[in-house]
Description:
This protein is mostly helical and 344 residues long. The protein has 12 helices and 5 strands. It has a single domain, classed as Glycosyltransferase. Helices cover 58% and strands 6% of the residues.
Amino acid sequence: MDATSPAQARAMAAESAVVRRYVHRYGPVAWAHAATPGVAGSRTWHYWWHAHLFHVFHDAEQHRPDPRRKRLQRALHRGVTVRTLGRWTTPFYDDVAWMTLALQHHDLNDRRIDRLVRRLDEAVDPTVGALPWAVGSALYNAPANGPAAIALAWSARRGSAVDLDAWVAAVLHDPTTGLVRDGVENGAVRPELWTYNQGVAIGSALALAGGAPDAGAQEAHEARAASLVHAVARWCDADGGLFPSAGGGDGGLFAGILARYLAEAAVWFADHEANDEHRAVSRTARDLVHRNADALWRGRRAGLFAADPRRAARGTGEDLDLSVQLGAWITLEADVAVAGLVTS
């Protein structure tokens, strides 16, 4: 795509603002602060926010190659090594899954990937058939099992990915909405519906469709992804297609994650030119991404995006969180990915 297109220009502005406000260099290393100066806890270092920072840098590099960005990526990579004392892991399996995905997109030859994938696979509880949220946790949730399924599908452990994806579909499916509920804890389903859980469910279905052993398996995974795209559209329809807001903090990333995987669905289903149903899925996914990107851009003030696309950005509170600005940037890069699609 033309690097001067409107979608590219918007994504470039979001990237520049995140780097300028939040990313700090310390000699050969770099990392991002959690919020702008003056906010309580602004210098906190968040492992999983950095996973998404890595991931969106990859998206930007795919859309607008730049050697300066690559140098900054290397400095951030060294920063994670320093902050984790070389381990590149945490006790939270959802965080490890997100970081594994980021590294897989950054460099499939990174020697850390095999170790992280093995850690995820070995942590699956055979009595439950799923990955706990964290070491010793009784919570088995979509934010851990969704990204882990994608990461495992990208590795040589496809069987485990199929099992995790099937567990999410069987246990966390909400029959009323067709969406994915949050998780199960001590036998009780947590019914909350979050945007990012829908995103990773779409992503895991597409990852498995991509490596399916036969046409039947591929069609089944595609059908799962398509059903989720349409369920998200129904969920958001009453609000003009805008995603529910989850506020600041970790929630600032949720909608951006959904946008990323909707963009993947838009691209995937657009490739099936002779299939009217697939083109409809692609069009629905693309329109959801574009509506939310447009709303975020309209609400931009002084280079900041709002945690909620229904309002203008503010110079105080949750809008100063790195996660919120990072989530908006992810959405705008997703919009770049779908901007050139023809799905009608």
